[in-house]
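From the methods appendix. Each design record in this collection lists the tokenized structure first, followed by the designed amino acid sequence. Records were kept in a plain field format so they could be parsed without special tools. The example shown here is representative of the layout used throughout.

RECORD:
FOLD TOKENS (625 positions):
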């Protein structure tokens, strides 16, 4: 059946996006929205999670006429297994990123990483003290080596406990032990899920779901947390700084390089290379006014939070950034990088460069980054971008808008310092109802939604209700473009939040980093719960991922829920083919861990549901609604 023409104005709330979508159409370029239309309607078996491809007696699909797979597995077992593997994919992504960070720290400690250093020595010593690693009278590299070893141990099975487990409030730890979901080691939980979901193993859906929670906890409290903490140690802990956002950060007269992916190990070196005087001179020789670097997705969050590098766009803006015709090169590491970028780039003069052997893209040039050659490879990539500048067709360049200002860099350390060295003022504001609650809005874009409509409107609605919003990942770009990440945005906040944020000169929506940095939000919740002597489930805190798409986002949502934090999602994972699994996700988990999933696609209704949850938590703590 012929598909209708897409109404571009309905695809995104942003002018920069719709203008580039119109240009893409003119230039004959297909985007994610076009491909979504080609893929719609989606397979109902896949969407509800009742297709099993685990063995070759199948694949099996569950229907009313054939309620069991060839082996006898029912819909509950199949849905739980599929969900378990989905969560495991996300945990593996974050945690392998974390492992790369440990290897980087170890290489620095062994003097095998020229150009990389320890930028935040105080944090290195603070975390080492926290984990019982001797620091007195020792030099930073010796301590870093021990810390790297300690973190490597988190991936194995021998130690049987996570390094950061003492950050988790005792009540929560106790619950996890009782339920048998205390994570023992990152790789162990991941491998065990693959084992459990092999044909003929865990054929009890609830039991599989509990292990999914355990896998996700290993991600949240180890893989992701380790990635965040090491990135701070190596590249500096974020502090508040100004940045700019949207496609207007791409400069017409400069060589434009976009960094995309997740791990700052590559992007930090690219950033160093673009400031190399020889390369700047080379760019001028080629007729450019300079070299401009901007971020996409989570790599964008990493370099923005630490260095104030401008952010070009979130997930659904990655193809559209190339459509400006002014991007010479996109350099990527891994995760959330659409393979289509190679084809879109080929329609212009944009070179795509991959850097990790884990994420090669057919048609892209591979420049392998290793710890011993990071800066050299970065210079090579920047030189390639400058060479591409000569191939730019000025008649095809269109930069659709001027950038918007934002403030970034609210690590927990930065928040603590903004609060005067103690979290007590934040707790006092919560107790007094000036800040009624805290919501972390995190995650992605998904072309099934009007781009950023839910991300932005949910944040707006919540701050009106005196709820402090913390953002990470691709939501950051959305709220940044909406002007919510500047102190002036307090004009849109309720009276209590306006007063507190106004006094501290901070925005009512705080940017805390990339996807792995959701670990910062977990740590903050744990700190607040410990101070109050309650469990994380007792806090007036909710998480949300309105426009999520990735396995990683589902894993984040699951570790938040397993940690006691109710999590709103715009749409459910592919679990609706099992009543048992769906009921567990949206209510049953609440009885077990104190949190569950709330599903609501409408951001205004979602804000009301989240608010109800916050009211009930406040009342249970004896606070006014
Ligand atoms: Fe079918 Fe069972 Fe094999 Fe799955 S494991 S494909 S349900 S026979
Ligand atoms: S990049 S997981 S689209 S937030 Fe972390 Fe954005 Fe979601 Fe990827």
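DESIGN:
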């Amino acid at each position: 059946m012929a598909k209708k023409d897409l109404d571009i104005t309905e695809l995104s709330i942003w002018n920069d996006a719709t203008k580039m979508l119109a240009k893409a159409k003119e230039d004959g370029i297909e985007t994610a929205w076009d491909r979504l239309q080609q893929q719609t309607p989606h397979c109902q078996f896949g969407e509800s999670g009742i297709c099993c491809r685990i063995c070759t007696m199948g694949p099996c699909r569950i229907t009313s006429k054939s309620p069991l797979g060839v082996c006898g597995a029912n819909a509950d077992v199949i849905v739980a297994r599929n969900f378990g593997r989905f969560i495991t994919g996300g945990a593996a992504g974050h945690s392998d990123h974390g492992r790369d960070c440990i290897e980087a720290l170890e290489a620095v400690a062994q003097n095998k990483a020229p150009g990389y250093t320890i930028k935040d020595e105080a944090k290195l010593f603070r975390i080492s003290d926290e984990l019982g690693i001797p620091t007195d009278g020792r030099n930073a590299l010796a301590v870093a080596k021990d810390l790297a070893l300690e973190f490597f141990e988190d991936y194995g099975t021998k130690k049987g406990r996570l390094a950061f487990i003492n950050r988790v409030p005792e009540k929560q730890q106790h619950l996890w032990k009782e339920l048998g979901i205390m994570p023992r080691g990152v790789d162990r939980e991941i491998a065990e899920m693959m084992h459990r979901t092999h044909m003929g193993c865990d054929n009890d859906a609830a039991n599989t779901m509990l292990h999914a929670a355990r896998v996700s906890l290993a991600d949240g409290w180890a893989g992701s947390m380790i990635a965040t903490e090491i990135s701070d140690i190596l590249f500096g802990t974020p502090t508040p700084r100004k940045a700019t956002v949207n496609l207007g950060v791409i400069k017409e007269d400069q060589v434009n390089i976009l960094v995309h992916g997740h791990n700052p190990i590559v992007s930090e070196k690219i950033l160093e290379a673009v400031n190399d005087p020889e390369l700047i001179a080379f760019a001028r020789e080629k007729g450019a006014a300079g070299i401009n670097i901007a971020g996409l997705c989570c790599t964008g969050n990493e370099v923005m939070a630490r260095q104030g590098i401008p952010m070009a766009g979130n997930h659904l803006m990655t193809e559209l950034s190339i459509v400006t015709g002014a991007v010479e090169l996109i350099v990527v590491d891994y995760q959330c990088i659409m393979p289509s970028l190679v084809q879109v780039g080929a329609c212009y003069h944009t070179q795509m460069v991959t850097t990790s052997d884990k994420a090669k893209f057919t048609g892209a040039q591979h420049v392998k980054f290793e710890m011993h050659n990071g800066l050299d490879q970065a210079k090579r990539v920047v030189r390639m971008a400058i060479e591409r500048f000569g191939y730019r067709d000025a008649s095809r360049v269109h930069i659709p808008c001027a950038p918007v200002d934002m403030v970034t860099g609210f690590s927990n350390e930065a928040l603590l310092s903004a609060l005067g060295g103690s979290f007590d003022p934040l707790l006092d504001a919560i107790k007094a109802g000036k800040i009624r609650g805290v919501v972390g809005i995190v995650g992605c874009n998904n072309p099934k939604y009007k781009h950023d409509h839910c991300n932005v409107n949910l944040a707006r609605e919540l701050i009106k209700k005196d709820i402090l919003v913390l953002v990470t990942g691709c939501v950051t770009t959305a709220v940044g473009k909406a002007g919510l990440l500047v102190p002036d945005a307090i004009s849109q906040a309720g009276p209590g939040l306006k007063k507190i944020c106004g006094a501290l000169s901070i925005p009512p929506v705080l940017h805390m980093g990339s996807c792995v940095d959701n670990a910062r939000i977990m740590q903050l919740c744990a700190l607040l719960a410990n101070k109050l002597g309650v469990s994380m489930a007792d806090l007036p805190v909710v998480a949300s991922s309105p426009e999520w798409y990735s396995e990683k986002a589902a894993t984040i949502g699951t570790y938040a829920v397993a940690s006691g934090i109710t999590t709103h999602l715009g749409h459910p994972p592919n679990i609706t083919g099992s009543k048992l699994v769906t009921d567990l996700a949206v209510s049953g988990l609440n009885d077990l861990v104190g949190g569950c999933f709330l599903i609501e696609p409408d951001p205004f209704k979602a804000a009301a549901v989240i608010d109800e949850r916050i009211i009930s938590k406040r009342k249970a703590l004896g606070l006014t609604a």
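APPENDIX NOTE: Residues 52-55, 57-60, 69-71, 73, 78, 199 surround iron/sulfur cluster (ligand 1) (CB under 6 Å).
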